[in-house]
TrEMBL record:
Protein name, as recorded: DUF223 domain-containing protein
Length: 67
């Protein structure tokens, strides 16, 4: 178990805004455990201490939230 997860969630939450497009750097990809699985996808993205999330602003396309 990652004891720093709550701190990471609070750290990265402001970077994840509805409708924004972001670039994520320095993360881990791991297999999803069957316990607490919320998707059918076999992998998950794990934010780690050096993870960087930057909003893409220039030339970004608008995301239609109705689709």
């Amino acid at each position: 178990m990652d004891l720093f997860l709550p701190r990471r969630v609070n750290h990265y939450r402001p970077s994840l805004k509805v409708g924004s497009i972001v670039k994520v750097d320095r993360f881990e990809v791991a297999r999803c455990s069957s316990m607490y699985k919320i998707t059918d996808h076999p992998f998950l993205i794990r934010f780690i201490s050096p993870t960087i999330i930057d909003e893409v602003i220039t030339g970004a396309h608008e995301i239609n939230l109705q689709s």
